[in-house]
Specification:
Blueprint (H helix, E strand, L loop, with lengths): L8 H21 L14 H13 L10 H22 L43 H8 L4
Length: 143
């Protein structure tokens, strides 16, 4: 499994398996056939930008020899399904990196005026890796 250094692999594997299973089931429910995987959603330059953006806030993606190949193989297992579901449900797939200063749809409504989002797209959704609670919680997890 290709992941974040310091995070237990079993957690990533379980999450991947459950999510892929749900996506395949949804494709079957809507009677949609997966489309050919072209790998165009995450080109090498975009992966580099993703690694850099996460690295800037202290999250280090695994970067061992063969990781990019493993990541491509994992993506081949689910991307054909999410692509066909995206087309069927008329919901375009997002990019791998958030747009700068974007406001999530849950942060606003037609009746509210909100301040612009801060220029920290990942920090707002990540635990503080330096906190004592984070280290205590992750040290108790099986590796």
């Amino acid at each position: 499994m290709v992941g974040i250094d310091g995070v237990p692999k079993w957690q990533a594997q379980l999450t991947f398996k459950m999510t892929r299973h749900a996506v395949v089931d949804l494709a079957q429910v809507f009677n949609t056939s997966p489309v050919k995987f072209g790998g165009e959603r995450l080109i090498p330059e975009e992966l580099t930008r993703l690694r850099n953006a996460l690295g800037e806030i202290g999250i280090v993606l695994s970067n061992e020899p063969g990781d990019e190949k493993t990541l491509a193989e994992l993506r081949e297992m689910y991307e054909p399904y999410i692509k066909v579901l995206s087309e069927y449900l008329l919901m375009p797939l997002p990019g791998w990196l958030p747009k700068p200063k974007s406001i999530d749809n849950w942060q606003t409504s037609a009746w509210e005026v909100t301040a612009p989002a801060r220029e920290e797209p990942f920090r707002k959704c990540m635990r503080d890796a330096n906190s004592k609670r984070f280290h205590a919680a992750t040290s108790e997890l099986p590796k």
